[in-house]
Amino acid sequence: MKVSTKGRYALRFMIDLAEHEAEGPITLKDISNRQGISVKYLEHVATQLTRAGLIRSIRGNQGGYRLSREPSAYTADEILTVVEGRLCPVACLEQTPNQCERYAFCKTVRFWEGLEKAVSTYLRSYTLKDLMNSSMPENAGDYCI
């Protein structure tokens, strides 16, 4: 289970919109300049987020993108699921109900289900507002092996 560049950029995109919401519709060019993400890549992310109803596209000379809701109404899980799909640690958990022929007697499926639940719970515990207001932890970059 790995969050792709698209997932990481989607979170940054949404945080940028939230931080600059008071300025009105935000252009992809402005987000691109602030985030260091190409406009072309942002177009793909914006299309998915718009289709899912997470953001609104405003056309015209003063157009751009806006959030559809307040930042506190979005979770990291919701945003990532739109661009990544369901974040499952193993392929057999991607379908509900589980279609794996070994499901009934698999000795590891409960382990994988627990991992998926822990990740999902963690991602749902963070709102866009939380991400927007977070700062780098004091021990960031301090790794011990």
How would you characterize this protein structure?
This protein is mainly alpha-helical and 145 residues long. The chain has a single domain, classed as Winged helix-like DNA-binding domain superfamily/Winged helix DNA-binding domain (Arc Repressor Mutant, subunit A, Orthogonal Bundle), CATH 1.10.10. Helices cover 46% and strands 6% of the residues. The chain contains 6 helices and 2 strands. It has helices at 5-19, 28-35, 39-51, 76-84, 109-124, 128-133, and strands spanning 55-58, 64-67. Strands 1-2 form a two-stranded antiparallel sheet. Strand 1 (55-58) and strand 2 (64-67) form a beta hairpin. It is elongated, with a radius of gyration of 18 Å.
Compute the separation of the termini in Å: 23 Å
CATH homologous superfamily label: Winged helix-like DNA-binding domain superfamily/Winged helix DNA-binding domain
Query: What structural class do the secondary elements suggest?
Result: mainly alpha
Largest sheet, if any? 2 strands, antiparallel
Ranges with pLDDT <50 over ≥5 residues? none
CATH architecture descriptor text: Orthogonal Bundle
DSSP E strands, number: 2
Alpha-carbon Rg, integer: 18 Å
Number of domain modules: 1
Form type:
elongated
Instruction: Please work out how many helical segments DSSP would assign.
Output: 6
- Average per-residue pLDDT, rounded, comes to 89
Oligomer: single chain
Tell me roughly what share of residues is in helical segments. 40-55%
Strand order in space, largest sheet: 1-2
